[in-house]
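Subgroup meeting minutes
Present: P.N., E.W., G.H.
Scribe: E.W.

1. P.N. recapped why we're keeping a running log of single-chain structure predictions: easier to compare across weeks, and new members can see raw inputs and outputs side by side.
2. G.H. added today's entry (595 aa).
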Amino acid sequence: PDGRYVAVTDARFTLFRLYDLSTCQDRAEGSDMIGRCRFLNLWPILDQRIPSFAGVSGVRFKGDNTMELYSGSRPDGVNLVRSHYLISAQGFSDPGYEYLGIGDSFASGEGAYQYKATTDVKNNKCHLSERAYPFLLAKELNFSQFNSVACSGAIIKDILTTNSNYIGQVHDGIKLKDRDIDNVYSNFVAGEIPQRKFIEKYQPKIVTMSVGGNDIGFGDKITRCLGTDTCYDTYEERLGAVNEVNTQFDRLVGVYNDVKSTGDPRAKVYVIGYPQVGDENGNCAANVHLNHGELAFTRQYISYLNSVVRTAADKAGVYYVDVENAFEGHKLCQTDSWNTAVNGLTAGNDIVNVPLVHGPIGNESFHPNALGHKLLEAEILKQTARLTAPMPMPDPTKKLQLLASDAEILQRPHSNKPVKNMWFYPGVKEGQANRSAPVMDSYNGKDLALKGSSPVQLVLTSDPVLLGEFTTDAKGNLDVSVTIPATVPSGFHTLHLYAKNIIDEDVDVYQTIFVGSNGDSGSCKVVPDSGQDADKDNIDDACDGLIDKAPVVIVTPPPAPTQPTKPTTRDIVRKLFVLLRRLFHAMIKHYFVRL
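Output recorded in log:
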């Protein structure tokens, strides 16, 4: 701040010096003063330590003893690769923040409950739990500076966007540029600003992250499978779902690189995969609602998603942590319900202790519970040598390996329907609509890359029902208002917007909704009640996320009847003595009264 030091680079990327202006010799005004000052030539230092070094840019001071910069290098001799570095004066180092957790619901602790109060309110449903593995890891490793800003529902955009108009995952309508940013930083408020901002601010030495599942609507896919039919049961449906994962590959590489370049270049970035949640060969409880084929598809889809995440991590040079089998022995349908690491279908109680008013099912459905996060913690510690495993080198040769047509996940009958580019879109409020009531929604042409002034169809499936035909405006935006016919059965359905994107490809913008009516009955609302309540918690087992052990009923036997006993001589003498004493007391009292 006192202006003593000046870092100098040139546009030809051949110079990098640090000048000490306190050593400058007095010169006449307008002369070459800087040429008369002592300097440290940093170029050869970086040239020795950075392979294929080709220059620096973006130099700035982070404090009295530390500089931040981007280096250029050409590892292949042609293409320029930029990397983020810190340079500290000898004897000094930027201590940084110890650990930060970022990501989606599998990192936030959705389903483990004990949410931070500010993340379980009407405008903020991040559901950040101190039972989640980021907090468990930090406590196990005795970190003094740690936190998590993971938020349920987070997509890649919620981590890396730099748009000043970003309104976050909360529902207060405040834009990033208008936030009380200091309050958000100091209180680690989740969901209000892009998660990368916390990395930029605190420069954590260790980052764990999970992201990607919400970008492909994984939760909605499981919800769709709660219907009475078998979901994703054709080759074309599954190929579309696989292609949707493939479209995230470059975006995943981008978010990993962004986290690396935004934070401390020495930081360790651990990308956590997704665990398997169910066993298709097991015995399922009343709260699972997925048949054998659907559980098999879920297993195959999670495995494929993890393979894409792993490849993207390898390409970016971050450490992939494979937790796919972390719940072995504790998956749904694999053990007693009270011993599972995953919630089953959970009634719509997104705000704890509030009845079904915030959605057809709880966000906790099919998410790891408290036991699940303990198992994730153990697996992460094991695979990362307690968060000390070094970062791999980026592998720019890594490419997405497309599935062969005979891959296990694609082994379903052909429907001969066209395969469209799928794009998950969380649209209709709370994911529910009533029959014979208006349903309104808006599609943002810019976010969805929809073609302007182009015809579209709105279709409801499983059994196709055309709800309406519309035309986007010149910018690709679309507002719709439709009525779901009374003939549509209650249950989970997929709402499709069939349209063209800006490069004239066919796209399927979809979302899962629950269609019901005001007359729907039963405590579970979205699935038939089972009529069972094994754990006696007054929640029907069909929508009880955790069917706990039945309470132990202690029955106290009635006392045995007593038989009259014959008085002994001692008993008779004792009673006679008591009577004589009472008579004596009465006589004395009578005598004194007469006196």
